[in-house]
Design a protein that fits this description.
The two termini are 66 Å apart. A hairpin with a 3-residue loop joins strand 2 (49-52) and strand 3 (56-60). The chain has a five-stranded antiparallel β-sheet. It has a domain at 5-31 and 80-167 and 176-196. The chain is an alpha+beta fold. It has helices spanning 9-30, 82-113, 122-152, 176-196; strands at 35-38, 49-52, 56-60, 68-72, 171-174. The protein is 43% helix and 9% strand.
Amino acid sequence: MRYLAHTAHKQFVGMLMGCVAWIITTAATGLNEWRLWYVQDTAVVSSGVAWVGIWRACFYSHTLTRFEFCHRMDITAGFVPPEIAAAQVLMVLAMVCGLAGNTAAAYAVRMVYFSVRRRDHLRLAFTVAGSLYVLAGMCSSVPLVWNITSVLANQSIDFPPEFHMPSAPSQQRVGSAVAVGMTGSVLIVLCGLMFLCYRPPAGGDEPVKRTVDSSLQGHWTLTTSGPVGKTRNRGKDNPTFDPEEVKP
């Protein structure tokens, strides 16, 4: 097979970046600080700020039974805004596509570096990996941008009474989870573009023709000082050999 490892160094780096981006996206999905919710009444929310994520809302309180009070937000709940409901679905889908993209990327890079069979589907493997990476980045970027827009518009959320949070905050800010998620989205899209830009060299599936240097070819002669299979003394006895010495 033709040597192709030198053609996929960028894609190998892209595969490593894709793994890191998938970890970052997974971390952003589980973080609570998507939106910082500032409240004026600190009777319950003692710190004056709550963290609204896509799975739950949390804050510190000195009056409740738990110092860190958290309440889960289900997608089926009627008060959950559409940007948070979409984030619950799209972020999970981004994690699945990212994991599938890492698997396809590892298979494609392995085909280049270690495969000894014909690489008939080499281009297809890189295309699938790149498409999955780009799809993962798009799935994660949509809810991230949507939540940024909601924060800038200071949109309210009608929390139920058991959340102990007002429906409208005095101020909102974008949380650190959004910055982490955007970093993962940009990285994973770049990885996808690197895989989509891969072009295998022409004739990559042709077998390598082995040639022998003509200077090494020629007639070889074997010269000896006597007939082959005989010693130089032509079978004569050793004059210094004493048969009496080997007797038991």
